[in-house]
Automatic annotation (TrEMBL):
Residues 72-235 form the Flavin reductase like domain. Pfam families: Flavin_Reduct. InterPro entries: Flavin_Rdtase-like_dom (IPR002563), Flavoredoxin (IPR052174), Split_barrel_FMN-bd (IPR012349). The keyword Transferase does not apply. One of its GO terms (molecular function) is FMN binding. Residues 1-25, 159-186 are annotated as: Disordered. This is Flavin reductase. Residues 174-185 have a biased composition (Basic and acidic residues). It comes from the Eukaryota. Signal peptide: none annotated. Keywords: Flavoprotein. It comes from Aspergillus ellipticus CBS 707.79. Belongs to the flavoredoxin family.
Length: 287
């Protein structure tokens, strides 16, 4: 990088001023040229160092925006409370993660005291995680913009609560399971644009007080029968009537998830890349 005439004048004035302040003699023209060359050399070496390590490929990113890089799992709807006693509520959630595949299957969910669902989950010890298709996205955002303390979101947004199947009561209660009528459970989220419902009970509350992180154990899962395939089951035959999940005469609809980018923008499922043959270490998790 060449130093401009203005930069030369500024450096010359600065060195002259420094000399006056310190009682030293101003730099000679030769010393000034040497200082300019050293500055230019240091700049080049710094750039070359970044290129040598590969750091020049990256730019610093604000730590408080890291969720925009990690968050894009499917945006979810969370149903809590009881349909039987009309305490059921629904909320939008973007912070969640898989913790364990099986024995038992565990999911982490971030739900804090600012949500009405927090009190429902704390009291009942169970919830339903629903995966909406992209057709519901605007409604999902609107649900996240209001509180169940102020409005009945089921009625306001035309969401149908579905009584929870008995499969959830067949499992042993989780560590945080609430007391009372076992059939007063969180409802499933109904509708043709809901891809799946995952019934959960609280397995562990140890991280709730500090991080609002609930460890949930999956006790039941239901997928939309209209989907062309069970999500992630690419080897299923969409027209197989003997397949109770994802197949049958109603199969054929392509349903896509929406993934929140953390700032109000979303990406939608696109092309699927099937690398199961290459994923040799984890064959037990493939069908």
């Amino acid at each position: 990088m060449e130093m401009t005439g203005l930069q030369r004048d500024m450096l010359r004035k600065r060195t002259t001023a420094d000399a006056g302040d310190n009682g030293l003699q101003p730099l000679s023209r030769l010393d000034l040229e040497r200082a300019i060359k050293r500055s230019r050399s240091n700049l080049r070496s710094g750039m070359q160092g970044d290129q040598a390590t590969g750091l020049d490929q990256f730019l610093p990113y604000p730590i408080h925006k890291v969720n925009r890089l990690l968050e894009p799992g499917p945006v979810l709807l969370v149903a809590t409370g009881s349909l039987a006693n009309k305490t059921h509520d629904i909320m939008t959630m973007g912070f969640h993660m898989m913790i364990q595949h099986e024995e038992p299957t565990l999911v982490g969910a971030c739900i804090g005291p600012w949500d009405k669902s927090y009190d429902n989950l704390k009291r009942s010890g169970e919830c339903v995680l629903a995966v909406p298709a992209v057709e519901m996205l605007k409604k999902v955002v609107d649900i996240g913009n209001c509180s169940g303390e102020d409005v009945n979101k089921w009625e306001t947004f035309g969401i149908t609560p579905v009584p929870a199947p008995d499969s959830a009561s067949d499992s042993e209660p989780g560590e945080g399971k609430g007391e009372g009528d076992d059939r007063a459970r969180a409802p499933l989220v109904g509708g043709k644009d809901v891809m799946a419902n995952i019934q959960c009970v609280v397995q562990d509350r140890a991280l709730v007080a500090k991080y609002n992180l609930w460890v949930l154990r999956v006790v039941g899962a239901w997928v939309n029968r209209d989907m062309d395939l069970e999500y992630g089951q690419g080897n299923k035959n969409a027209g197989d009537n003997d397949d109770p999940v994802g197949g049958g005469e109603l199969a054929g609809r392509e349903m896509k998830m929406a993934h929140h980018r953390g700032d109000g923008r979303f990406v939608v499922d696109g092309q699927e890349l099937d690398l199961r043959d290459r994923m040799v270490k984890w064959k037990e998790f493939q069908d």
